[in-house]
Amino acid sequence: MIFAETLVKKYGGTAVVDNVTASIAQGKMTTFIGPNGAGKSTLLSMVSRLLSRDGGSVSIDGTPMEHVEDKELAKRLSILKQSNEMSVRLSVRDLVSFGRFPYTRGRLTDEDEQIIDDAVAYVELQEIENKFLDELSGGQRQRAFIAMILAQDTDYILLDEPLNNLDMRHSVQIMKVLRSLVDDLGKTVVLVIHDINFASCYSDYIVAMKYGKVEMEGRTWDVIHPEHLKKIYDMDFQVQEVNNQKICVYFS
Amino acid sequence: MKLRYVLLLLGVLAFVSLFIGVSSLSITDLFSMTEEQREIFWSSRIPRMLSILIAGAGMAVAGLVMQQLTQNRLVSPTTAGTMDAARLGMLVSILFLAGAPALVRIGTAVAFAVAGTFIFMFILERVRRKDPIFIPLVGLMFGNILGSITTFFAYRYDLIQNMTAWLQGNFASVISGEYELLWLTVPVLLFTYWYADRITAAGMGESFARNLGVSYRTVINTGLVSVALITSLVVLSIGMIPFLGLIVPNLVTIFRGGHMRKNLPYTAVAGAAFVLICDIFGRTIIYPYEIPIGLTVGVIGSGIFLYLLLRRGRHGS
């Protein structure tokens, strides 16, 4: 379990993340939702140690985060940020193979190659695995980054807007892959997602943030409710049940 | 192209280069050299060829490392002030440490190169515009400021001739007993190869690197010190070879990609071959005189540099 307690991040006096306490349930998919600037990405960055915090603490499986070594953490927790500009000219396979770096420090075994093969296959990039990233479309690149995270094979997987640049088919495909990581392999997946319906249909828990604070958290089924959503997003929602899933309609 | 073939080509070029020069020494003389020819062969031709290979490989790899660490394909020891800083360090060592042991003077040049590179990185981190063309321009300006300081003091102390010699790299003065310093580049090169994966991981960006458990700062600092070491060793023993660290890694990356452990051997070999070709060119074009290597590499290099800039501008990325 990841437990974040009274986390604070300030930029120039303004708290972007303001005293947030949240726990991430083990072996579940938790999605952070909320309007732009709510502090979701900042929170994710602090939890994954990419960003220093101005207050509070984070622990992973009961150990305070600062007691875990960098190399060790990379085998337990992975994070993919939302903007991924890369100037290094890597091929898809090279990129994915870097997911094995925490284990191999660069010397790949046959087992690693197999894991890389699987990760590339998961995101359906086998045919272009030798192409360079700068030759791919935004969606293909995004899938390549996700494959790298898959190859990293960590218990905790944090993805900041992983559906960026993806069309519907690939969005669904990525969500299914993530779902199976949770259901079949017992991984803990934490997401930031803007499309409320992807959050509603795939995640176990939802944490809604607004103005740097947690507005609401709970089981997906409970959070997805017109009143709650109106409080979070300041707009009207209709929620309908389709095939036992809650679908939000917010086009007015 | 297989590395094997590239190496073979380099070998042939290197062999041919041994028989170009003012003193007559042809391939047919190889097994029947006179005393004088043997002297020239071992104390001039061989050191020259080896120093070209080492300096070429060194500067190309230094450029590659720098491009990865700064995440900018147009940064190299020439466009980051590293070379100019090394030269300023040499001036300082000539002015103030004339009596000091060689190691101290070398250390001074290296220290200046390291400091210059870190100042560039400091500026880079504070520049708001991360425009890929803007950054090397800042580096060039920074280098020119260092260069003018060097020139100013060189004028005042009548050292212009010395400093100009270093401004334009020259292999003509390479003789055994005076270029051996350059060999120190080899262990640094081997180190960068061993360190290559970490450098590429850092080149993927801070969040990627840290996600992979790579300590970003350490890798950046270690890499930059390696670059400064290589650069100052080359500047000390040969002189400045501009643009080499820019063109060669970029050309190799276009074909081989940027995974450093995979393209470093190619970059090193291509760098050596490029300098060797420029050197042969410079030695034959106005035979029996020769054009300094800094000039040939500079002319051909700036042409290719311009091409890369324009190509970049057209694609808008």
Automatic annotation (TrEMBL), chain A:
Q: Is the keyword Membrane assigned to this protein?
A: yes
Q: What is its main location?
A: membrane
Give GO terms for biological process.
iron ion transport
Q: Which GO terms describe its molecular function?
A: ATP binding; ATP hydrolysis activity
What is the scientific name of the source organism?
Answer: Alkalicoccus saliphilus
Q: Which PROSITE patterns match?
A: ABC_TRANSPORTER_1, ABC_TRANSPORTER_2
The protein here is known as Iron ABC transporter ATP-binding protein
* SMART domains, per database record: AAA
Write down a Pfam family by its short name: ABC_tran
The protein's topology relative to the membrane is: Peripheral membrane protein
Residues forming the ABC transporter domain are 2-236
Q: Which GO terms describe its cellular component?
A: plasma membrane
Where found?
Cell membrane
Domain of life here? Bacteria
TrEMBL record, chain B:
Query: What taxonomic lineage is listed for the species of origin?
Result: Bacteria, Bacillati, Bacillota, Bacilli, Bacillales
Task: Tell me the protein family, please.
Answer: Belongs to the binding-protein-dependent transport system permease family. FecCD subfamily.
One GO term of the biological process aspect: siderophore-iron import into cell
Does the record's keyword annotation contain Ion transport? yes
Ranges that cross the membrane: 6-28, 49-69, 89-122, 134-155, 224-252, 264-285, 291-310
- Localization of this protein: Cell membrane
Membrane-topology descriptor: Multi-pass membrane protein
The protein's UniProt keywords, in alphabetical order, are: Cell membrane, Ion transport, Iron, Iron transport, Membrane, Transmembrane, Transmembrane helix, Transport
The protein's name is: Iron ABC transporter permease
